[in-house]
Design brief:
Shape: globular
Structural class: alpha/beta
CATH class of the largest domain: Alpha Beta
CATH superfamily of the largest domain: 2-enoyl-CoA Hydratase, Chain A, domain 1
Order of helices and strands: EHEHEEEHEEEHHEEEHHHHHHHHHE
Strand content: 15-25%
CATH architecture of the largest domain: Alpha-Beta Complex
Low-confidence stretches: 350-356, 364-369
Number of helices: 14
Number of domains: 2
Mean pLDDT: 88
Oligomer: single chain
Strand order of the largest sheet: 1-2-5-6-11
Largest sheet: 5 strands, parallel
Radius of gyration: 23 Å
């Protein structure tokens, strides 16, 4: 629990055990009378498509389209919710960033297109491919791309690729960073030819990741060249390990994140780190160091807390100053996690053939041939 009302679940990967782990976490939150949950998918690069489908099913009412796949040699296959989810009415906020990809985008796309919750953060990576694992007798395997996946509104999240132009595709994240997309919503270029609608008629875009409902820029406050060099060389992590090992006996008496943090604040950690970094070849720069003091302390305290108390305490500490998490708490506290229909519905796009773009929810019954899957069907594909 982040506070006495709202819970938080961090999902690092969509693996074979991720779905049962989610069920356990939701059960614990319900025992603590949780009134809303934040699902953090930042940095989650994907995994099993089936795990993402099972997890989002926990939050959707019956017969809602979660995702569908389609390829040149693969007929359309629909995956719909079965109505057995334990948290169908719980307010939910999903956190994403440029490191969220594939199965993460399936989860977030289903929540967004079904108007089930609010997406907060930055535009996701944009990987909309389905890969089938093929095992060989020698124990090796390949993952063959067999289809693309589409969110309930009908949009493909796969970012554009032009054959023979590999460099632009591979450098997409760096290009987005250089264009200022991580820091300003106005710098994001959406494909205006790929506008779709959610179930409430809200406009969403295809052709390159999922755009959040609420944009939170990357925080660069206090970042200096000294801090970047220290972090990039791994010096903050090295120091945290060394400090933990030499003070483990003294710190073992602190059993909570809060009590250990109070101890660390009185140990002049930053000064000790500066001497350590200088011994490793990083020249001391007092002005830059103190300009980045808050970042250094967050990094150093956090790594020591992780070494002593584990991942849960580490995340609890970081969330207290995480602007994206704080924004999510604000949305939940105001009761604004459930999206509202736009006052002026968007005019449906008309294609070259003269047909209007409809949502996949409304259109799915007319598309044929297609196969429908229940949630308990085995899905071994990767996304």
């Amino acid at each position: 629990m982040l506070n006495d009302k709202f819970g938080y679940i961090k999902v690092n990967k969509f693996g074979e055990t991720t779905y049962p782990e989610l069920l356990i976490s939701l059960a614990k939150l319900n025992q603590e009378n949780c009134e809303g949950v934040i699902i953090d998918l930042r940095g989650n690069t994907g995994g099993y498509m089936g795990a993402a489908i099972q997890m989002v099913n926990e939050f959707l009412p019956k017969n809602r389209l979660i995702v569908y796949t389609q390829g040149r040699k693969s007929p359309r296959e629909n995956y719909t919710s079965n109505g057995t989810g334990s948290s169908q009415k719980m307010p939910i906020v999903v956190l994403m960033d440029e490191g969220s990809a594939s199965a993460s985008e399936i989860f977030a796309g289903a929540i967004q297109d079904n108007d089930r919750g609010t997406i907060i953060g930055r535009r996701s990576f944009g990987k909309g491919l389905v890969q089938q694992p093929i095992d060989f007798s020698d124990g090796s395997a390949i993952r063959l791309t067999i289809a693309r996946y589409y969110t309930p509104s009908g949009r493909c999240i796969q970012k554009p690729y032009v054959k023979g132009n590999d460099a632009n595709y591979e450098m997409d994240i760096l290009t987005r960073y250089e264009h200022g997309e991580f820091f300003s919503q106005d710098s994001i270029k959406q494909d205006q030819s790929q506008i779709f609608e959610t179930s409430l008629g809200r406009p969403v875009y295809g052709g390159g990741g999922i755009m959040p409902d609420i944009f939170v820029p990357q925080d660069t406050t206090g970042v200096t060249s000294y801090y970047r060099m220290a972090a990039n060389r791994g010096l903050t992590i090295q120091f945290a390990f060394q400090y933990t090992d030499s003070h483990r006996g003294e710190m073992q008496k602190y059993e909570t994140e809060e009590s250990l943090l109070q101890y660390l604040k009185h140990q002049n950690i930053l000064e000790q780190f500066a001497r350590f970094a200088e011994s490793k070849g990083l020249k001391r720069r007092n002005i830059l160091m103190y300009k980045s003091q808050k970042l250094f302390e967050t990094n150093l305290y956090g790594n020591i807390i992780y070494n002593m108390l584990g991942m849960e305490a580490y995340i609890e500490y970081l969330n207290k100053s995480d602007k994206t998490v704080l924004k999510a708490l604000e949305v939940l506290d105001k009761g604004e996690s459930f999206p509202k229909a736009p006052e002026q519905p968007i005019e449906p796009k008309v294609s070259d053939e003269g047909t209007k773009k409809a949502t996949a929810q409304a259109d799915s019954a007319r598309k044929a041939p297609s196969r429908h899957h229940r949630i308990n069907d085995e899905v071994r594909c990767f996304a």
